[in-house]
Specification:
about 425 residues; about 70% helix; two-stranded antiparallel sheet; two-stranded parallel ribbon; about 5% strand; mainly alpha
């Protein structure tokens, strides 16, 4: 129980305890640092006093490569942008949450407990989203809230858990659709619509249809697709203002695609932002408001509306370079190409979603709350592979024992 509480505490610190407005920024920073310190302490103490036997860390080298990228980016921030090493060390503290992957291997929390936590966090995310939606224009959280596209767009922390929980519950529903699961799916999907983000809405809808079509659990897929298509009609009617505004915005932006702010920002952070060719390898490092480098980054936001957090993986690449990118691509490839059980197929759809939205919004591999969610999924895959390996070894032992009995019987005969 204590280990689960520790894990939950670390997850909540990565989320900034959902950024309630009554929690000051300084307190949030202290909580974030506390989560990192607890994570490091778990690794250190368990390495010395814990059970030395553990199971394979399948993605260990990718996580280590990410830490190499983080160190290299610190050097570039110092040499090219005159930002001190201690300043960058603190500025990039969110990246240290990758230690949670190793901590989970020491804590050895059951995968089903982590899945329960994912669903619970998704429900909390939904409830807080609704609370902020109703309370607007009064802010309950220190987050970005915009009234546009026929809705109130709320950028609450913790979206990866909502997406993970959506595909997890959807996958479970293929075996048995219960009223609770139906309510959860409707609630999670309603948030996706209310956010008014085209890429998010399109990606979820596309992957839902693909999940239905390729699921081995469903027998009458045509019927399910038909029912799902019919269910879309009342959804469109309920949120028609949002859909109409999204369509109108798409038509306006399609006229001048080259002037789209994300295209301009992405182009800038891939070209002019790099001070030297070596920076493409190392990245430029995370910026701090306490340095000239951070002031420059803020100027790009205020004057040009260029946000690294708006261009996804490009923004992460501009910070941590090609070494980081290699690790991310390796993780994505290995997850999507590996063989998982039907119960874990939701993880593959989550990472398919990550790819489809990899150039919009905050990059999932360079954001604190997303990083912890990524670590959880990687750990769950490791648990599955370990369990499968043990079962294969057990089957092999039983087969060998049966062969030995057969040989003895033949000899006796």
């Amino acid at each position: 129980m204590f280990k689960r509480i520790l894990a939950l505490f670390i997850i909540l610190t990565s989320l900034g305890f959902f950024n309630f407005i009554f929690i000051g920024k300084d307190i949030l920073k202290m909580m974030e640092m506390a989560g990192i310190v607890v994570t490091a302490a778990i690794i250190l103490l368990q390495s010395v006093y814990g059970d030395p036997e553990g199971f394979r860390k399948t993605f260990g080298w990718e996580i280590l490569l990410i830490f190499v990228a983080v160190v290299l980016s610190m050097l570039m921030a110092w040499s090219a942008h005159n930002q001190g090493l201690p300043t960058t060390l603190i500025a990039q503290r969110f990246m240290y949450f990758y230690l949670f992957y190793f901590a989970l291997h020491f804590l050895k929390i059951p995968d089903y407990d982590l899945e329960k936590i994912i669903v619970a966090l998704a429900v909390i995310y939904f409830l807080f989203y609704v609370m902020q939606f109703i309370a607007y224009p009064k802010l309950l959280f220190t987050i970005r809230v915009i009234e546009e596209r026929g809705t109130i767009r709320i950028f609450q922390t913790g979206l990866p858990y909502l997406i993970l929980a959506y595909f997890y519950v959807l996958n479970k529903s293929f075996s048995e659709m219960t009223p609770v699961r139906a309510i959860l799916l409707a609630s999670f999907f309603s948030v996706v619509i209310m956010m008014g983000t085209r890429q998010l809405l399109f990606s979820i809808f596309l992957l839902t249809m693909l999940n239905i079509l390729f699921s081995r659990k469903l027998k009458s897929k045509v019927l399910v697709v038909l029912v799902s298509s019919l269910a879309v009609i009342p959804v469109i009617l309920m949120f028609q203002d949002i859909f109409l505004n999204i369509i109108s915005l798409s038509q306006e932006q399609s006229v001048g695609f080259e002037e789209n702010i994300r295209v301009l920002a992405g182009t800038f952070f891939l070209t002019d932002f790099f001070p030297t060719p070596w920076a493409y390898l190392t990245g430029n490092g995370a910026d701090s408001a306490n340095s000239g480098y951070g002031v420059m980054i803020q100027m790009y936001k205020d004057v040009f509306d260029f946000y690294q957090s708006d261009v996804g993986l490009i923004g992460d690449f501009s910070k941590f370079g090609a070494v980081f990118l290699i690790a991310v691509i390796s993780i994505l490839y290995r997850i999507l190409s590996c063989r998982l059980s039907e119960d874990l197929i939701y993880i593959k759809y989550f990472y398919a979603f990550v790819i489809l939205t990899s150039f919009t919004g905050a990059g999932p591999f360079g954001d604190a709350n997303s990083i912890v969610a990524v670590c959880i999924t990687l750990y769950i895959i490791d648990v599955y592979k370990q369990r499968r390996e043990e079962e294969e070894n057990e089957d092999a032992e039983q087969l060998n024992a049966a062969e030995e009995v057969s040989i003895i019987a033949d000899t006796s005969g």
